[in-house]
Amino acid sequence: MLFISNAAIIAQQQKNNVVFIVVDDLGWKDLGVYGSDFHKTPRIDSLANDGVRFTDAYSACTVSSPTRASLMTGKYPAKLHLTDWIEGHKMPNAKLQIPDWTMYLPLEETTLAEVFKKNGYSTAHIGKWHLGEDEIYWPENHGFDINIGGWRKGQPNLNLKSGANGYFAPYGNPRLKDGPDGEYLTERLAREACNYIQQSKSKPFFLNLWFYNVHTPLQAKQDKIDKYKALVDSTKQQKNPTYAAAVEHVDEAVGKVIAQLKELGLYDNTIIILTSDNGGLIGNKKNQVANNTPLRLGKGERYEGGVRVPLIVKPTQFVAPDKINHTPVMSIDFMPTLIDMAQLDVDKNVRKGIDGVSIKPILVSGNGKLNRKSLYWHYPHYHTEGATPYSAIRQDDWKLIHTIETNTYELYNLKTDISETKNLIDSVPSIAAKLKKELELWKKKMRAQMPTVKAAKK
């Protein structure tokens, strides 16, 4: 039997606040609580102790924009036809012609912010957006009362000719007033979040806090970089001091937001989600960025390193007995979960269009079962990190990958082979056939766009 304090009882009588934190390009093993042997993240680790940490959480895509669209709508990128980062890579010599995909989040889509706003919440977006080149598609036109820092770019604006200095002011961001020279972007966004929480404390709020860190260009304050330079040694898998410093900047920023919530007495009544939009960026041999070991590869790839991400959920009155959960979940699940946990009134047609499922049962009991068999990916594009057009399905411990360009398949058992080293496609033909069929049926259901063979040159 769980002991419920008076403060918790009072909290249950109020609407839940939401702080939805997305750390750009954060890898599955970048946090201390996920096994990092180099990065220092005590504040996020403490948050995990107050909630549930998911070991098998996934982004809906191996790159940013499609996942962000899925976070906001609860829909698969394939259904939205928003399947690559905006504007995508131009690869004229590629074997296949990529589809004419949607390069913005359509205004007709119902977003999380719109749902919360209709239920009487104040809404704010602070940080990266990256869901449309034209400002008509920016946060203020998708249900957010306030937009600080969200615009077309998917990374800090580093353009020395124009004066933009990346993570250090001046930012060259039309939705973020420049601070004093040398101000660090992540610290600024944390201050903006704290100010918003302070100003909104008398009304329930929904806050998107989507950091630009740890996306390139890799920049951090020099004292932090020097700290990690002194810690590098041959025994560690992670060795990039600037990247480690950027991760620590995020940890400190999250800590400031949590401290503000606690100071105002709002922490217990605030749902906090912390996750990433895709796997960690590997980089190259000369300049390794993230190390996702034991996962295979990273951002922009079809394997686990590209789509398995950290996920921490700190509920309010819902307390799961297990701090660690191994249920496969995905970014499409956040919209139905938050609707469920905040008990929002939502149009039945909006609910009907959601692909994700609520993970509230897991947060309530720790042993809750989700009404879903499989998770899917569809990326009909090429990426400079290695991906060619592919689709994939995960069902139970099995993962099937279809490389469209070569029409070849890979099958892995993630329980026994998390690193995807042994292709079992010829060893278990019955499972392979079943998953192939289900993957094709799902693509038809989604009306997924497919790459096509290029016309021969005359």
Structure, explained:
The chain is an alpha/beta fold. It folds into two domains: 14-84 and 95-369, Alkaline Phosphatase, subunit A (3-Layer(aba) Sandwich), CATH 3.40.720; 378-453, Arylsulfatase, C-terminal domain, CATH 3.30.1120.10. It has 13 helices and 17 strands. The chain has helices at 6-12, 42-49, 64-73, 77-80, 112-118, 185-199, 222-229, 241-263, 304-307, 334-341, 348-353, 360-365, 429-446; strands at 17-23, 52-58, 96-97, 122-127, 146-148, 158-159, 164-165, 205-211, 270-276, 308-314, 324-325, 329-330, 374-379, 390-395, 398-403, 408-413, 452-453. Strands 1, 2, 4, 5, 8, 9, 10, 11 and 12 form a nine-stranded mixed beta sheet that branches. A four-stranded antiparallel beta sheet has the order 13-14-15-16, with helices on one face. Strand 6 and strand 7 (164-165) form a beta hairpin. Helix 6 (185-199) packs parallel to helix 8 (241-263). The longest helix has 23 residues, at 241-263. The protein is globular, with a radius of gyration of 21 Å.
